[in-house]
Amino acid sequence: MWSGSACSSRSTSSSKHRTATGKDFIVRLLNRTAGRLSRHRRGPLAGLAVLLLGLLISGSLYTVLSPAQADSQASETEQVAKGKELFLASCSFCHGQNGEGVATVRDGYQLGPSLVGVGAAAVDFQVGTGRMPMASPGQQAPRKPVVFDDDEVAALAAYVASLGPGPAIPNEADYSIDELSEEERQEAISRGGQIFLTNCTACHNFNGAGGAMPRGGYAPTLHGVEPKYIFEAMLTGPQQMPNFSNGNLSPEEKRDVIAYLGSLEETPEYAGFTLGGLGPVSEGLFAWVIGIGGLVGAAVWIASHTTRTKKSKVNA
Asked: Which positions fall inside the Cytochrome c domain (predicted)?
């Protein structure tokens, strides 16, 4: 019985001794490895190796995380280069080789103003609606079929935008009311109507049908015009129109004006003949020529067809 206990005790102490010996071996091994690493780190090329490793990791991460940005910059550069080629071929005669404008006056007209700082929005409006390029300088650039396709218009806008900072082409979210609730849409239309009646009816009249302007110009109709181009016209002020910057009319207020004009096209005309929606001038002309003229003609006809008696008067 005592011998069994002694054996068990010797076995336990032997196991503990082996465990301690194993731990000491592992500690010595780790210390030796750490010592080797420490000696390598203190070597003359260790700092250079760490620096090169850091640069390699940074470059790899940049390459992986930013290829889209590099591709986007390359695409923009190509677009600007394409726009410059189109500009030199189609626009430089009037606006100069670098968009600086041509101040020479021929037949009372300036050939072309400077485009530095007008921004991409002005180009998108003028070229996207066919107003530019013009066949010849004049007081008014009417809307006509578009000469360039969408990609070419975008390229021209990108090139002119590169000449100097200016208004950018608006996004659909800037002028759309699709995301608004029905109540918010009605409020936007009401606000837009007040803004339009205050700032725009003098030229475009209350119905947005346009009207005459001094010196051979005219305010074009706003019926059927795309919302983007109305927004750009307010932002850039083409030709005789004043520009309403975001400091004058906020993007939300411009959106409200567009919403009001859209409601005019959706509202039925309950009064019968609209007479072009030109206001009191056309209505007054109709009243005088057709209304009063018709009454005068009817009176003359009645007088000429009245039955007259042929009996002589009998003296009393």
From this structure: 78-265
**Phi, psi of 169, rounded to the nearest 5 degrees:** -65, 130
Q: Is 12 helix (H, G, I), strand (E, B) or coil?
A: helix
pLDDT tens-digit profile of 60-101? 776 666 655 556 677 889 999 999 999 999 999 889 999 998
- CB 153, CB 127: distance < 8 Å: yes
DSSP per residue, 249-288: S-HHHHHHHHHHHHHHHHS--TTS--GGG-THHHHHHHII
CA distance 178 to 172: 10
Question: Do residues 124 and 151 lie in contact, with contact meaning Cβ atoms separated by under 8 Å?
Answer: no
Beta-strand pair 109-112/218-219: unpaired
Give CA angle at 131 (128, 135), nearest 5°. 130
Residue 110 forms beta bridges with which residues?
A: 105
Higher pLDDT, 235 or 23: 235
CA distance 111 to 141: 13
Predicted TM-score of the model (pTM) = 0.67
**211 burial via Cβ count (<10 Å: 0-12, 13-18, 19+):** middle
**How many contiguous H segments (helices) and E segments (strands) does the chain have?**
13, 4
